[in-house]
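Provenance and format

Records in this collection were gathered into a single text stream. Each protein contributes a sequence line and a token line. The two records reproduced below are adjacent in the stream.
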Amino acid sequence: MKKIINTTKAPAPIGPYNQAVLSGNTLYTSGQIALHPETMELVIDDIKTETKQVMENMKAVLEAADMTFENVIKSSIFISDMNNFKQINEVYGKYFNEATAPARETVEVANLPKFVNVEISMIAIK
């Protein structure tokens, strides 16, 4: 059985999907981009600020499912320019304990929703 997870502390979905789905003890999040949850405006001043907004959005989704970044077992990072990898990684890393960080892939893609620079999705377990 699945439980839909939604919170007003993260951006509302902009299509036919939910912020996350909890199935048993496993949470599958949708990709988050740098939309400010209150204004739905993009926060893309620079790549570090953009990545921080993405991670704060993800934090809100995890919290709505009574989880934290410690529950994350897998992350997928999609970026529009691999030259931004170092800065994205620097911000992303602040949200995890390196010793218990999740598995992850980082993939450069041709385009992302709303032409943002980074999108992140996660899988977490209780």
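Adjacent record:
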Amino acid sequence: MASSSLDPFRLAFSEPSWDDLRIFLAVVAHGSMNSAAKALGQSQPTVARRIKVLEETLGLSLFQRGPNNLDLTEAGQAIFEAANTMGDAAAVVSRTAAAYRPDPDAPVRITATASVTLFLSLYAAELHETAAPVEIAYIPTRRRLDLASGEADIGLRMRNLPEGSDDLVARKIGQIAFAMYARTENPTAVIAPPEDPTLSRQAAYVAEFAQGRTVAARIGDMPIRYQAAKAGLGAAFLPCWLGDSDPDLVQITKPEGDLIEDVFLVMHRRSRNRPNVARVANALAALFKKNQKALVGA
């Protein structure tokens, strides 16, 4: 009796090779062995052979092969979900290693919220001139990127100092004030953020302001919210440096209390000793100091 090419007992105790799992992840990501081969810089027969070895090692068929398609089997989907976690962990390892042996010519990556990144973009030429010849990369996101694993070199964080790592160093470089702005002094509509008012101080403030007014839209992205307010949709919560600089907008509320937030420049201890990172950090601190009045709505 002929034995199956995928004998479930033959290699029951073998551990799959990470190289084979990496190729498997590439095949799933690119949809075919040929496309995965091109992405990996390998030949299609090599990729097909490594997938076969992986299937034999696991004792499972990972793909349902059709004439023009390659679909995961139920087992293949389960293996993919497990291996994908390993792939994410491997990426973290690679970033962490790179953070300890950085390319001196690599761009210095700054992560900040969209509103802070928009402010930086207005002075990008000035920052470039001050930090030259260092190249700067801007990463606008509300997610706190992991500085320890090398997702970014400098983080501009609002309100509170970061917690949870003794390896992070922070310094306050300024403040940013916020207020409600609209095309008219008595707006009847409000542009609200999408967050639950119980989970965000900004959302709670806007919800209180919206009492007796119509919520015209919910927009989380600050630059888009600004454009909607400028177009006359309603009052929006904006940073004062932006609202005050636009002659089409009127400040409806005064920035005070929780509407004035501290800004901290955060780095990992190893990063602050890199000359290029230190150069960009000093340029950022100088920029905030120079514009401190506009930033707090003075």
